[in-house]
Design goal:
about 475 residues; alpha/beta; Rossmann fold; Glycerol-3-phosphate (1)-acyltransferase; 2 domains; seven-stranded mixed β-sheet; 20 helices; phospholipid biosynthesis; 1-acylglycerol-3-phosphate O-acyltransferase activity; transferase; AGP_acyltrans; phospholipid metabolism
Length: about 475
C-alpha cells in the first residue's frame, strides 16, 4: 500500500467519532526512539551517573523479547525520573520537541492523522512511552487522546516507578480495547498503525490493521495474515551520496550568485544580475541535490505581476523553491536574523531583501515602507506570513504584514502552497535529500476592496485556504 491509497481509504471510508485511528508513537509517528532524546539530554547535562549508565547499556544489550524483559527495561529507564515534578518533565518534553523531535515527525504520518481528523475520526496515540515523551507532539498534531505507560506520581512529584502495567505488547492491546469500549468505538471499521513486531496483538484489535514501517517480525506477521503494509520515506542517517549532493548544491547556489553578478557586470545592469541569480538559484542547486519541484497551476505565478507571493514556511529550502516557481523579478521580506545566515544571508542581501526585526514593531514598519515602493516599481515580493518556520507541517498563524503591504501597493496576494519541503531538508538538518517537492500556486486574490476593519477575518480565510489545500491536494 502506498500513502495515497491509505489516504484515499480514509477519505472514502465511514466518517464520525465512532471510528477510531490508533497510532503507535516511536517508529510510526516519529522516526527513532524518543526515549533516547530524553536520556541524551540528561547525559549531556551531566545528570547520568556511572551506575545508571551501566544499567542502561546492559538493558540495551539484553533487549526485551518478553514482557518481563520490557518491565525491567522501563524500571531502569524511569527510575532516574524520580524526584522530578510533572511540570519539569512536560517542559523537558516541550523543549526536546522544539529542538529535535519535531524534525523527526514523518510527514506521511502527519498527512494520515490529518485525513482521519478531517473524517471526524477519534485519533489516539497509544505508546509504551511515558506521557511526557508524547504530549508535546500530540499537542502539535492536535491529537486529544493519548494512551501511555503510567508513572507513579505523589503530590505532583514522580517516584520513579511505573504505576501498573506498561503499554507494551498485551498491555497496549488491553488499553486500546478498554478505550474502544469506553468510547463506543466501532472496532470493525477502525484503524491501527504500528511498526513493531511486539504490536501484532495491538494491530489486530481493530478491523483495519496497517503495519507501518514494519520491522522483520511484523513484516512476517503481516505477510502471513494478509495485512497491507505501509512504508514511509526512510529518515535515517544520510549516506555519502546525500552529503556529496548537498555540498554540490551549496556550491551551485553560491556559484549561481557569482555567475549572476558577473552577468550583471558585463551588461552594466543590476536587474540582469538579480534576475540571473534568481533563475539560476532556482534551478542549479535543486538539480545538483536531486530534488524535483512539481508545480501545479504554474500559470498563476505569471497571471498578475507585480504581486505579493506568500508561502507556508517549513524548510530553509523554501526560498530556493520560491525562486524555482517565480524565476525572476522578485525580492523578499524576511526576519533580521537571516542577514547573517551562512547559507542564504549573502544572497538575500545582494537581491535587496528587507530584513525585519520582529521584536521591534517600529523598526519592522519602517523596513516595510520601501517594500511598497519596490512593488509599485514593478518587482514582486515573497513573504512567509507565518513569520518563522513551523515545527510541523501544520500551518501556523498568519501575520498581517504581507496583506498590509499588498493593500498599500495596490497589488494582489498570490498564495503559494508548498508540500514535502521538510522531507528533502529536515528541520535542524543541513543535509539535502533527493525527492520531489510539491507546489501549487493558487489563484491571485484581489485585495483592492479590503478594509482594515475586516483584515483579521480576511487573513484567517487565506490561512484556512492553506489548510484545506494541504488536506485535499489538487489532482
Amino acid at each position: 500500500m502506498i500513502l495515497e491509497e491509505a489516504l484515499e481509504r480514509v477519505r472514502t471510508g465511514p466518517k464520525g467519532p465512532e471510528i477510531a485511528a490508533f497510532f503507535d508513537f516511536d517508529g510510526t509517528i516519529v522516526h527513532g526512539f524518543s526515549g533516547l532524546h530524553f536520556f541524551r539530554d540528561r547525559l549531556l547535562a551531566g545528570k547520568v551517573g556511572a551506575a545508571e549508565l551501566a544499567a542502561t547499556m546492559l538493558n540495551g544489550l539484553r533487549g526485551h523479547d518478553t514482557e518481563a524483559d520490557f518491565e525491567r527495561f522501563v524500571a531502569v529507564a524511569f527510575k532516574a525520573w524520580g524526584g522530578h515534578t510533572e511540570e519539569e518533565l512536560y517542559e523537558i518534553g516541550r523543549r526536546l520537541f522544539a529542538s529535535t523531535i519535531a524534525g523527526h515527525i514523518y510527514p506521511e504520518a502527519w498527512q494520515l492523522i490529518r485525513a482521519h481528523q478531517a473524517a471526524g475520526h477519534t485519533v489516539v496515540i497509544a505508546s509504551s512511552a511515558s506521557r511526557y515523551q508524547i504530549q508535546a507532539t500530540a499537542d502539535a498534531l492536535g491529537v486529544e487522546h493519548v494512551l501511555f505507560s503510567p508513572l507513579e506520581v505523589r503530590d505532583g512529584v514522580l517516584t520513579g516507578r511505573v504505576d501498573g502495567k506498561s503499554l507494551w505488547r498485551s498491555g497496549k492491546a488491553q488499553a486500546v480495547l478498554a478505550f474502544a469500549e469506553a468510547n463506543s468505538i466501532d472496532r470493525e471499521q477502525s484503524y491501527t498503525y504500528s511498526n513493531g513486531g511486539e504490536d501484532a496483538d495491538f494491530l489486530a484489535t481493530m478491523g483495519n490493521p496497517t503495519p507501518t514501517n514494519p520491522d522483520r517480525n511484523l513484516e512476517r506477521t503481516a505477510t502471513e495474515l494478509g495485512w497491507p503494509i505501509l512504508r514511509f520515506k526512510p529518515r535515517g542517517t544520510p549516506g555519502t551520496k546525500e552529503v556529496v549532493r548537498t555540498l554540490a548544491a551549496y556550491g551551485g547556489l553560491f556559484g549561481s550568485v557569482w555567475t549572476g553578478v558577473g552577468l550583471g557586470l558585463l551588461n552594466r545592469n543590476k536587474k540582469v544580475a538579480l534576475d540571473s541569480i534568481a533563475t539560476l538559484a532556482g534551478e542549479v542547486p535543486l538539480a545538483l541535490a536531486g530534488i524535483d519541484v512539481d508545480i501545479r497551476n504554474e500559470a498563476n505565478a505569471w497571471a498578475q505581476r507585480p504581486a505579493v507571493f506568500i508561502f507556508n514556511h517549513q524548510s530553509q529550502l523554501d526560498p530556493v523553491i520560491m525562486a524555482r516557481v517565480l524565476r525572476h523579478s522578485f525580492t523578499g521580506v524576511t526576519k533580521k536574523e537571516m542577514a547573517s545566515d551562512p547559507l542564504f544571508g549573502l544572497v538575500l542581501r545582494f537581491v535587496g531583501a528587507a530584513f525585519v526585526d520582529r521584536a521591534n514593531t517600529e523598526q519592522a514598519k519602517a523596513a516595510l515602507g520601501p517594500v511598497v515602493d519596490t512593488l509599485r516599481e514593478g518587482t514582486s515580493v515573497i513573504i512567509a506570513p507565518e513569520g518563522t518556520r513551523s515545527l510541523t507541517p501544520e500551518i501556523g498563524r498568519f501575520k498581517k504584514g504581507a496583506f498590509h503591504i499588498a493593500m498599500q501597493a495596490g497589488v494582489p496576494i498570490v498564495p503559494v502552497v508548498i508540500r514535502n519541503a521538510g522531507e528533502v531538508l529536515w528541520k535542524h538538518s543541513t543535509v539535502l535529500r533527493p525527492g520531489t517537492v510539491d507546489v501549487v500556486v493558487l489563484d491571485p486574490i484581489d485585495v483592492s476592496d479590503w478594509t482594515l476593519d475586516e483584515l483579521g477575518a480576511r487573513v484567517a480565510e487565506v490561512e484556512d485556504l492553506y489548510r484545506k489545500t494541504l488536506a485535499n491536494w489538487p489532482a
